[in-house]
Amino acid sequence: MFGFVKPEQGSLLVKEYAFYKATYCGICRQMKAHTGALSPIFLTYDSVFLALVRMVFEDKKEIGVKKGRCLAHPIKSRPMLLPNPATEYTAKVFALLSYYKMKDDLADEGALTRIGLLPARPVLARARKKAGEYAPLEAVIEEKLSEIARLEKEGCKSVDTCAHPFGELLGALFSYGLSGEDALVTRELGYHLGKFIYAADAAADYDEDLKKGRFNPYVLSYDKKPLTKENKEVIRTALVLECTRMEAAVNLLDFRGSLTLEALIRNIIYNGLLNRIDFLSEKPPAEDLLGKAE
Amino acid sequence: MKDPYSILGVSHDASDDEVKEAYRNLVRKYHPDNYTDDNPLKDLANEKMQEVNEAYDQIVKMREDAKSGTESNTGYTSSSYQSDPRYGEIRRLLNARRFSEAERKLNMFSEYDCGAEWHYLKSVVLMHRGLVNDAMRELETACMMDPSNLEYQKAKQMFNSQARGYGSTYYGPASNRRSSSAEACDCCANLICMDCLCECMGGDLIPCL
Question: Do B134 and A158 touch (CB under 8 A)?
């Protein structure tokens, strides 16, 4: 479910991409500092998006970059964000999310996956303990994930119903601790991002889930038949409509003058997410390289 | 007139689900998308499609009448099904933006009763509630069941073009997108600039500035 909320690197300015990478490193650092030395192995690109959105609300003076080395990249020093509340929040929240995700997987994946997951357990359990200050959020995560598990067990065939709890979950993560307009906008952004992630993920797994007989709301709603080109086009349109709701939220987000954050956030929701659902359309790959006439 | 059951290739005691399944399979078979404009079989396929639609409508109507005990009403024509008064009422509710009432009414339909129009109206309700995935699925079903209906096609095209236009409203400074409206702004700025220059030289390009 994780790891594809990424920007399209080619469409970013070099400084924007540098900031993106620095944020990634910054979150990694924060995970080391706050959730245990081994916890960064669970770091994903999705977390950077959360950090970017949360940084919009931070005092810009708090966000600094410094060059440094780390264990994973000992040779070349690279820019990384200095600790700030947004990256700290992201590190802790993703540790929590990874813990509950693992707990879920342990409960319903096959034996092989379960054995593979076992070493992760102590690492994440420790991380969760260290992120203990977010008890209300933890309750939400647990509740929403179990709601998803319940819907999957019931064999729900409505994609929107299945995706709804995950949307609410991300909505809560994005808006936690914010108030007023900011909370409203970020909750909406997170909600539709969550729904998008869930649905796009299900669409991507269609063929595999169909073959293995695993639960997938799309497979059920298309009567367990292989998708035609037209079906894919319809699914794609629905997913893009989900994106337009994210766009509507971002349009109301007060970026407080940060052009870099705005460019990154918009790049991710416009280009990054659409790249993720490329498998649903059949366009010649050269089009992107050459650019297209409007 | 041919027996509608034999057109769909099912027996008279087939369950509602079996009838629906047979109908869907036939629709898929004769769907206009399978027959391009230059295909000499196009007209034949259209005819078949119409036959299948009428047969299905007829079966649905007969079974509904049987259920509600109004068997005396045998004067059925396919058009009377299509203008089901319940749909008219639901459309009125939708026009009045009373979506939850419309949805309640839609949910009262029995499953074998759900024709193309039902799926279309359902998609309108779902779209309004922001359930885009389910809405598109219903719209797809409506278009598949009645491919000749312009209203459904138009709705589908509208959403497709909305999806195509996604992201094009952003003309941020860091964006790689070049848009006509950004250029329009540049054009205005240039004109104002020119006007200033002209005024410096004692002339005037745009008198009102």
Answer: yes
Q: Model pTM?
A: 0.71
CB contact under 8 A, A234 and B163: no
Banded pLDDT at B25 (limits 50, 70, 90):
confident
Does CATH place domain A9-282 in 1.10.600.10? Answer: yes
B140 and B102, same structural domain?
A: yes
Considering only residues 59 to 88 of chain B, which have any Cβ-Cβ distance to chain A shorter than 8 Å? none
Three-state SS at A62:
helix
What range does the domain containing B102 cover? 84-164
Q: How many contacts (CB atoms, under 8 Å) link A and B?
A: 90
Render A202-259 in DSSP notation, one character per residue: HHHTHHHHHHHT---HHHHHTTT-PPPHHHHHHHHHHHHHHHHHHHHHHHT---TT-H
Identify whether residues B93 and B50 lie together within a single domain: no
Give A142: exposed, middle or buried? Use CB within 10 Å, 0-12, 13-18, 19+: middle
Q: Are residues B160 and B190 in the same domain?
A: no
* CA separation for the pair B112, B107 (Å, rounded): 12
Q: Which of B34, B59, B81 represents a domain boundary (last residue)?
A: B81
Provide the pLDDT confidence category of residue A219 given band limits of 50, 70 and 90.
very high
Q: Has residue B30 been placed in a domain?
A: yes
Q: Higher-confidence residue: A119 or A5?
A: A5
Q: Is the pLDDT of residue B199 over 50?
A: yes
Among the candidates B48, B81, B114, a domain finishes at: B81
Q: Is B96 contained in some domain? A: yes
Within A75-228, strands assigned E span 78-81
Q: Does position B192 have pLDDT exceeding 80, yes or no? A: no
Domain harbouring B29, CATH code: 1.10.287.110
Q: Is A253 on the interface with B (CB under 8 A)?
A: no
Size of chain B, expressed as the number of residues it contains: 209
Q: Which residue, among A275, A282, A205, has the nearest Cα to A240 in the 3D structure? A: A275
CB neighbours of B187 closer than 8 A, spacing ≥ 6?
A: none
Q: Does residue A86 surpass a pLDDT of 70?
A: yes
Is the minimum CB–CB distance between B132 and chain A shorter than 8 Å?
A: yes
CB atoms within 10 A of CB B25: 13
